[in-house]
């Protein structure tokens, strides 16, 4: 009975005082109710322990004080850049997932992201028109840039000012609308999407709105909103890529003279900074008119104060300013967006050009990481979602249209398996981003979730496009106007590398930030140690111990019962998913604490273990986001297969990450105990079944609501000469004429035709009265559209296109 009582107290996370009262009552009941004599010594020991646990003065003297002394010695010091990165942004739903006891009603109560009438009109109007103007083959193969008329359309219609407030002439769209605009453009062409998204992401516009002086805002924001200024932001150095805090670019505070290129006015002997820099991989740098520049600022002559090393600083520098060098460009694989280097040597700028003015000198790193938590939720995740939508839309139709061995290739199980991944990953990507966008639009800056999105969406994009390429086969191999996959496939390494390389993001950032920011007690303990606050440490460590004990019992109980007795906010087929997520949230919290307990400060250097812990948190988030999306869509039964695939595979990946973590935890005894607690019956979760995968694949090949929801928001040309636009008309035509084609195949097998070719047999069937003229016309059209779908481009030796129209006239 005592074991059950302790288990119940731990499971429900009873406070220490409640423990004391209940256990005292239990001891008293033994003596008064059951007649058992409780020795005085037991009461004395119980009283002493209770006093120590419940009286802060005694607790600190006997227990938490000595622990605090040891904790201060073993806690590794954090650099300023680490502190600023950890303090950046906010924690939101990720904190619930770290708690071991997620509040599912809270998740379901988050508002569903919606477009305003103005935002929807922009997507249906200017965004649709922009997509129609984009010819991605011409841009990437011939022009290596957007056409001038496209650039002007982007500027004239406010695409560069989606985040700028209306009082400065911008559109002031929600983060959700911003992402959906980028997604739609990206379904048409990556070059156009990148050119639009970068000025609205991490860069001068975002930084100015948050930190700029009023004078800077009043001058630059209207010009940015209208495209008068084209911005770029120069952070990355050849010598400091992922370690952006180690940029070698520097500026020295001094007096100097300069001519303001905006006014032409000469300024003599003013206080400013002489800056030298060399940057690489800067998007829009070759065409930028205003350069956001990050550099380390020093004041050796103490012209600003006592501090010499002021820190990373961000400034706005007109690219026409004397000494600023731009104009060269890189050529990122598969894309033609403007990207290039910028450099300068001893370029003098006034202090007023610092973003935020003199008061924000040295605050650049904090500014950047705070804004990055927003940008990383939008740009690259939106590009990833767009790739998933195009892959789902095109591969589903192509796999149904294309046949081999007399059967649509989508009905072969190997292709079916790849298509299930395409649909499932697309569902996961959009659900994960939409939930994060909800957080952004209610005022959160979820820095940990932005890292989750950046890594997992771009990795799923990579897998999705790989599968789409495999299914399309030769259709996707040959470059040309008909190929709607290869450019995105070629450009995958760009998304994997930028805004925090994926290896770094997975192995260091997701859990490195999450363990400190999202954990209910760790950050409080670290801050207490840094501030030498024994009282605060006492409160935090006491709560932490109770938290660990609770998660041990919760993980064991839910492991033994398969979480069947856990509550769920929803019934039916999704109830079990909520229960399993609750179970694994507790298990994750327990593993996280045991990792920090057993490895201490060295955990930050055990990147493989940290990566697996990050995978656990990420899959908890992805699965919960999918459940949220399912409810947001009205819990449609048609979507159950894709939901099951998405959630069951996320849960399986979560289980495998835990298994890998336990297999490699250095303390083997601790790992063995944890395995028995968390997996008392072994690894019981399986990935989604083949049957579910087949249902997902079939939903992509059918014109139905699931396919529509997976691909909503993408651009599809209504022109049947467009390589994507022809897919659905061809699919419809094939489905409508399938009975006639089956009749013709049966006649051919029975030897009823004198003709040899399919075209001649069709004519013979018409002449023989086997089919009607309407059927003849429908089959002829369906076959022509099918040919349009499966054909690839061919060129002469000089890579000039052949007259495909001539070839079609010869055949049809």
TrEMBL record:
Q: Which Gene3D superfamilies does the annotation name?
A: Acyl-CoA dehydrogenase/oxidase, N-terminal domain, Butyryl-CoA Dehydrogenase, subunit A, domain 2, Butyryl-CoA Dehydrogenase, subunit A, domain 3
Q: Which domain of life is it from?
A: Bacteria
- Residues forming the Acyl-CoA dehydrogenase/oxidase N-terminal domain are 132-227
Write down the species.
Vogesella amnigena
Q: Which cofactor does it need?
A: FAD
Q: Which reaction does it catalyse?
A: a long-chain 2,3-saturated fatty acyl-CoA + oxidized [electron-transfer flavoprotein] + H(+) = a long-chain (2E)-enoyl-CoA + reduced [electron-transfer flavoprotein]; a medium-chain 2,3-saturated fatty acyl-CoA + oxidized [electron-transfer flavoprotein] + H(+) = a medium-chain (2E)-enoyl-CoA + reduced [electron-transfer flavoprotein]
Q: Which top EC class is named for this enzyme in its record?
A: oxidoreductase
Q: In which pathway does it act?
A: Lipid metabolism; fatty acid beta-oxidation
Q: What is this protein called?
A: Acyl-coenzyme A dehydrogenase
């Amino acid at each position: 009975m005592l074991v059950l009582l302790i288990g119940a107290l731990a499971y429900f996370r009873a406070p220490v005082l409640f423990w004391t009262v209940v256990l005292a009552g239990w001891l008293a009941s033994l003596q008064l109710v059951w007649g058992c004599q409780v020795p005085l010594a037991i009461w004395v020991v119980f009283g002493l322990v209770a006093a120590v646990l419940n009286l802060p003065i005694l607790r600190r003297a006997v227990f938490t004080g000595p622990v605090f002394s040891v904790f201060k010695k073993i806690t590794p010091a954090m650099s300023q850049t680490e502190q600023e990165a950890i303090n950046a942004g906010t924690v939101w739903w990720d904190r619930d997932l770290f708690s071991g006891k997620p509040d599912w009603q809270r998740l379901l109560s988050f508002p569903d992201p919606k477009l305003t009438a103005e935002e929807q009109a922009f997507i249906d109007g200017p965004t649709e028109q922009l997509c129609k103007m984009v010819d991605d083959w011409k841009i990437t193969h011939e022009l290596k840039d957007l056409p001038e008329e496209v650039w002007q359309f982007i500027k004239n219609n406010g695409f560069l000012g989606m985040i700028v407030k209306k009082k400065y002439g911008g559109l002031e769209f929600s983060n959700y609308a911003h992402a959906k605009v980028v997604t739609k453009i990206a379904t048409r062409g990556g070059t156009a999407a990148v050119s639009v998204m970068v000025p609205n992401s991490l860069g001068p516009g975002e930084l100015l709105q948050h930190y700029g002086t009023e004078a800077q805002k009043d001058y630059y924001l209207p010009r940015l909103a209208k495209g008068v200024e084209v911005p770029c932001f120069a952070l990355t150095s050849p010598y400091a890529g992922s370690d952006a805090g180690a940029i070698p670019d520097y500026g020295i505070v001094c007096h100097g003279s300069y001519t303001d290129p905006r006014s032409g006015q000469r300024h003599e002997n003013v206080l400013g900074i002489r800056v030298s820099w060399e940057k690489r991989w800067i998007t829009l740098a070759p065409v930028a008119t205003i350069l956001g520049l990050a550099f380390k600022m020093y004041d050796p002559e103490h012209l600003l104060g006592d501090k010499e090393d002021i820190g990373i600083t961000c400034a706005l520098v007109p690219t026409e300013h004397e000494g600023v060098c731009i104009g060269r460009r890189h050529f990122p694989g598969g894309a033609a967006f403007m990207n290039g280097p910028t450099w300068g040597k001893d370029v003098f700028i006034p202090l007023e050009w610092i973003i935020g003015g003199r008061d924000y000198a040295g605050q650049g790193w904090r500014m950047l990481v705070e804004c990055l938590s927003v940008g990383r939720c939008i740009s690259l995740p939106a590009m990833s979602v767009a790739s998933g939508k195009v892959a789902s839309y095109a591969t589903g139709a192509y796999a149904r249209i294309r046949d081999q061995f007399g059967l649509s290739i989508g009905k072969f199980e190997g292709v079916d398996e790849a298509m299930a991944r395409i649909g499932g990953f697309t569902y996961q990507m959009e659900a994960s981003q939409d939930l994060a966008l909800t957080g952004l639009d209610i005022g959160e800056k979820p820095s940990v979730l932005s890292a989750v999105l950046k890594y997992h969406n771009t990795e799923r994009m990579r897998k999705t496009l790989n599968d789409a390429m495999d299914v399309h086969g030769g259709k996707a191999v040959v470059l040309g106007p008909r190929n709607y996959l290869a450019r995105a496939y070629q450009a995958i390494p760009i998304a994997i590398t930028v805004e925090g390389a994926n290896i770094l993001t997975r192995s260091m950032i997701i859990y490195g930030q999450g363990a400190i920011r999202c954990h209910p007690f760790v950050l409080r303990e670290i801050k207490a140690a840094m501030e030498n606050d024994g009282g605060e440490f006492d409160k935090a460590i006491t709560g932490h111990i109770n938290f660990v004990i609770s998660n041990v019992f919760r993980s064991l109980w839910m492991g033994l019962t398969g979480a069947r007795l856990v509550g769920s906010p929803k019934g039916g087929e999704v109830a079990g998913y909520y229960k399993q997520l609750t179970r694994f949230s507790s298990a994750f919290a327990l593993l996280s604490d045991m990792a920090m307990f057993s490895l201490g400060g060295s955990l930050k250097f055990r990147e493989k273990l940290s990566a697996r812990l990050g995978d656990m948190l990420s899959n908890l988030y992805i699965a919960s986001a999918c459940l949220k999306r399912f409810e947001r869509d009205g819990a449609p039964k048609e979507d159950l297969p894709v939901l099951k695939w998405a959630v069951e595979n996320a849960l399986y990946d979560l289980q495998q990450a835990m298994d890998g973590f336990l297999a490699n935890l250095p303390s083997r005894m601790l790992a063995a105990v944890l395995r028995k607690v968390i997996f008392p019956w072994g690894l019981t979760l399986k990935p989604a079944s083949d049957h579910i995968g087949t249902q997902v694949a079939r939903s992509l090949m059918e014109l139905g609501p699931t396919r529509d929801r997976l691909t909503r928001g993408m651009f599809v040309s209504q022109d049947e000469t467009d390589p994507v636009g022809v897919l659905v008309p061809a699919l419809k035509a094939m489905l409508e004429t399938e009975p006639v084609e089956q009749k013709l195949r049966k006649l051919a097998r029975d030897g009823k035709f004198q003709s040899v070719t399919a075209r001649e047999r069709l004519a013979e069937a018409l002449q023989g009265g086997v089919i009607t003229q309407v059927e003849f016309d429908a089959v002829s059209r369906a076959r022509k559209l099918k040919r349009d779908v499966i054909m690839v481009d061919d060129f002469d030796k000089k890579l000039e296109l052949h007259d495909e129209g001539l070839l079609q006239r010869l055949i049809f």
